[in-house]
From TrEMBL:
Family annotation (Pfam families): FecR
Protein known as: FecR protein domain-containing protein
Chain spans, region Disordered: 268-290
Organism annotation: Mariprofundus ferrooxydans PV-1
Compositional bias annotation for Polar residues: 281-290
Segments passing through the bilayer: none
Domain of life: Bacteria
Amino acid sequence: MLTGFATHAGEIGRFTAVSGSVDTLRQVAAAPVPAYVGMGSFMRDIIRTKHRSRTQLRFIDDSMLNMGPDYMLEIKEYIFDADRKVRSGVLHSLRGKMRAIVAKAGDNANSRFEVETPTAIAAARGTDFIVNILSSLVTEVVVLEGVVEVRNIDRTVHGHILLQAGQRTLVAWGKPPAAPTFTPPAYAQLLINETKPENVHSPDQHRLASIAEIAPVPPPPQMVDLHTMRFMSGLMFGRSGSMRGMPVGSGLPVVQPAVTQTAPALLNASRTPPAPPAPPGSNSDCSSGC
């Protein structure tokens, strides 16, 4: 675990990549501590990435977090029993987006890896997913591999979903998770890039290939010839112009076509407007004086 590092007492992970400005707020320090590669992390630490900054944290069980710009995370709990292969991790995301690449624990039934946000909880076991806090009222969860259980952080809000690889959902404040939708591979690639520090290896191409295989392919547009269009128009509309089976004036309003210069009535009409009719009792012959 934590290959290549000798951990210190209480250390639950280490920074393996830092791009830009990243710091840590911890209970034993009065001021933020700038993060650097090889620096240890402890429970109750609050990790912050600044604008255009990213970082990667590797936990003692080899799970990894890739954190994007303007991100804030509190490590509420992270316990790993190497002998029993049991993990208990609870991370609280406050803002921004991050990617969790969760290592498989030996005893998945008794292990947990949960990410909390202002509106949602995403629970995973041996999977790869992205948590994107769109606002304080909406969280997006995108699964790249494996299965993630998603529910509202408010326990009184009933309902949860099992999000499969290649799917995404939104969790709004006070609402159960929305029905899963497929994630476009281009959008998944965008989220991966926004959370990936420089010079960091991760199984991105494999994940994206899996999503591309799962995502539904839209059907090609159907070409309709002119005869078919006329036939369908005759089925839907009668000679009166109203839909068959519907009286004129019901359903959709009947709109009369506007008079245009292409209308025969307009082309054949005189451009000189007709004279108004003479009032009753008047002489239409003005030769005697009008």
